[in-house]
Amino acid sequence: MNAYVKSVIENVKAKYKSEPEFVQTVEEVLTSVSPLVDKHPEYEEADLLNRMVTPERMISFRVVWMDDNGKYHTNNGYRCQFNGALGPYKGGIRFRADVYPGIIKFLAFEQTFKNALTGLPIGGGKGGSDFNPIGRSDAEIMRFCQAFMTALYRHIGPEIDVPAGDIGVGGREIGYMFGQYRRIKGVWENGVLTGKGLTYGGSLIRPEATGYGAMYYLNEVLKAHGEDIKGKTIAVSGYGNVAWGICKKAMHMGAKVVTISGSQGYVYDPDGISTSEEKVDYLLEMRAKGSIKDYADKFKVKFVPNSRPWGEKVDIYMPAATQNEVDLEWAKRIVDSGARYYIEVSNMPTTNEALQYLKEHNVIVAPSKAANAGGVGVSAMEMSQNAQKLVWTEEEVDSQLQRIMQNIYKISVETAEEFGLGYDLVAGANLAGFKKVAQAMLEQGVF
Ligand code: NDP
Known about the structure:
Elements: H1 3-15, H2 20-32, H3 34-39, H4 41-45, H5 48-52, E1 57-66, E2 72-83, E3 89-95, H6 101-118, E4 123-129, H7 138-152, E5 161-165, H8 171-185, H9 209-224, E6 233-236, H10 241-253, E7 256-262, E8 265-268, H11 277-289, H12 293-299, E9 302-305, E10 316-318, H13 328-337, E11 341-343, H14 352-360, E12 364-366, H15 368-371, H16 374-388, H17 394-418, H18 425-443
Parallel strand pairs: 3-4, 3-5, 6-7, 6-10, 10-11, 11-12
Antiparallel strand pairs: 1-2, 2-4, 7-8, 8-9
Helix pairs in contact: 1-2, 2-6, 6-18, 7-8, 9-10, 9-16, 9-17, 10-11, 13-14, 16-17, 17-18
Bound molecules: NADPH dihydro-nicotinamide-adenine-dinucleotide phosphate (NDP).
């Protein structure tokens, strides 16, 4: 490994001991880009790598809100504006009890390279709160979102930083946050958030975009291996927005999603979730209620409590719930199952050692920063529509989404080959995204 890369990784490990997710992603990305750093001594001269692993800004704020019984609660809110070299910071907001700066920073770092891969002018950012929305009433969610935006609004704007949804934040939460932004600022700036409702500037296909994009990416991988997506079985984790988009597109493409999961366990439906509109639509209802077991009760299928679907016999695995949901033990089960394809869809679903194990055992691995980039791709299209005061048709958005995913696949394959790494989608995506951000930073001078 390049000596400068090694020293930066050691520096990050020492500095961010209490933020293991951030250390994990830095190690993974920098290890991949070592051959690029070998070729560019000017990176070290400009101390580019240490700049790359340091957020431009990490904003931390207090969020105070009142529950339905009149009791006050205080949460922590964050926005990490990691890297703005390519455009306004762009990335989602996560509401989940386990959110802390290490999660927000890892997500914002990943987002920077993912956004670069889309080819669109967007920088990397991410935000969130340790607020737990599960079991909260609609009025409580509204008051929380309003309090969150009251603290955040001064740091964002259509040309500054444009947040979107993530775990725990969907169309409803974006609506409440946009309403509060408008109320405080007194301006119609709908380009400040993406994932909005269609009545006030949302884009068609945005809710489905991450899942659809992942399926388009998967299709490219299969085509390259002479396989047809039709008839393939898929194990998906999560049952949220992204899992729903995967199921919807799998239905269009004739693939069969047989598992979904949540923190309480997983469901195995041998007839397929993606084979019935009623089942796919039911995912949206379940997400609002927050209970995965409801699916098994309603459709009378197997529910496995406190477990994950890795190891069920399928053709393709698509983790789509959260970070580090596949560790070495689960990776061994995936390899033992005989499946050939592993498409990361949630952000950093795989520990570094599990990722290594899968690759060493000839499983074709697609990294999340490439496979899940369709969501932010369509978000950037939403920004364009808002800026031009236009509404694009479903066909226009969908065909651009397909083109973005095909390009990401192509550039990842070509970049890995350029560096003599063969067919390595993980290294190819890291190298291609990193190279673009590095070049923009160098051209913009030292700051
Ligand atoms: P949702 O909030 O809609 O759904 C999240 C799902 O993941 C739920 O099924 C939830 O189950 C499960 N989950 C969350 N945390 C855990 C955990 N610690 N253990 C087990 N299950 C968990 O989120 P999204 O579908 O939007 O996001 C899913 C993933 O995709 C995230 O990693 C997100 O960062 C990533 N992503 C999302 C994009 C988007 O456009 N929405 C874009 C790009 C990436 P339960 O409620 O039972 O905990």
